[in-house]
Amino acid sequence: MKFNGDNFFLDYINQNWRLLENRPMCLTHGDFHVGNLVISPNKELYVIDFQRYRIVDPYSAFMSIMFSANISPHFATGQIRGYFNGEPPENFWGLLAFYLTAVNINALPWSIPFGQEEIDFAYNMIEKVLSWFDNMKNPVPTWYLKDFHVQCIDGIPYKLKKAFDFSFLNKYGKVFKVFDEQGSGNITFGIENNGKKYFVKFAGAPKENYIANRESGDIDTESAIKLLESSVSLYKELAHPTLIKFISAEEIGSGYAVIFEWETAVGIEPKSSVNYIKFMQMPIENKMRAFEDIIEFHAYVAKKGYVALDFYDGSILYDYDKEKVIICDIDLYQKSPFVNVGNIGIVGSARYVSPEECAEDDVIDEITNVYTMGATAFALFAYGDRSPEAWTLNKILYNIAKKAVSYERCERQQSIEQLINEWRNAK
Known about the structure:
Elements: H1 6-16, E1 26-28, E2 37-39, E3 45-47, E4 54-56, H2 65-71, H3 73-84, H4 90-105, H5 107-111, H6 116-132, E5 149-153, E6 156-160, E7 174-179, E8 186-193, E9 196-203, H7 211-216, H8 222-237, E10 246-252, E11 255-261, E12 266-267, H9 274-280, H10 284-303, E13 306-307, E14 316-319, E15 324-327, E16 334-335, E17 338-339, E18 363-364, H11 366-382, H12 395-404, H13 416-426
Antiparallel strand pairs: 1-4, 2-3, 5-6, 7-8, 8-9, 9-11, 10-11, 12-14, 13-16, 14-15, 17-18
Helix pairs in contact: 1-4, 2-3, 4-6, 10-11, 11-12, 12-13
């Protein structure tokens, strides 16, 4: 069985198997992760499912930590620090990467007897492990929180790189929700004031997992502020029924805040989450309408002279009461055509990124977004799998989506309007 990135796993095993030599052995639980923990009504913690206990290298007991890290990086970090009473020794990371590599090579054949849901979960975990370890080039996973600070506002906890004063948020109302996991430089809040709810996006705080900080090792708030500030014109110019509604923006709290109307909608990302599964199990008519709303919005984006960058599952919200899609993140959209000068590194999910977005000095335009919309179709109607067997609609629609994600630009539909017309005529 082949899968994207299997060469990185195999190479890592071939290069590092000697790490197993002369390792100690001890009795372990065999499957310790958050799925095998229960909490009593008295808040007492119990460990269950000991049937996989075994005598192995004690570090191999961390193989199941990927399930914990997928749900709570804080818990996974605490598990490691608790085990070692502080920072782990250097040899731990190489062995952890080795054991997670080994277990994920086995994940696909293991999952087959349990059905498609487990197969999809295996693919998803493989993708995440490769991302966490930078295609096995860095043995310390990105979810490990070596330096982070947890603080609360209105009783809601959230994490930062270091302490930051958010008392100015009282101006907007009471916080009822915090979103601190995204890799952008923004931390966002759900805030209620006199019965009305708002979505407040703020740049200027030392985000713990800001991608720019992760790459440089420094705390870079200036770039996040500039990016969020520049996005305001996008939300004004591209205002649309499918786009989250912009209200106002201002400099505040040594940073910059953008205020939107709150939507009673939920995201469909990450893949394999409860919300993702709920969305994917919707009636096909609802998903078809959702997809058409997405491509109609991007046809509007093209008419306004813009190109979508960084559009992926995380940009999609769905309101189940109103049965409608909301696009929530267009911060990186650019004037079209956009040239990837000097290969600046276009961000986004690998399942959505076109060939030209990965090439230095290539033009990114509406034809690029045709690819993005084709990738969206496969995400919504085939779990991201582009094989005919995974496709859940008719063959004509499959051929249209496949044409949209052609490697060669000239083989795709040459506009989103053309894609829309072909799609509607084939339904």
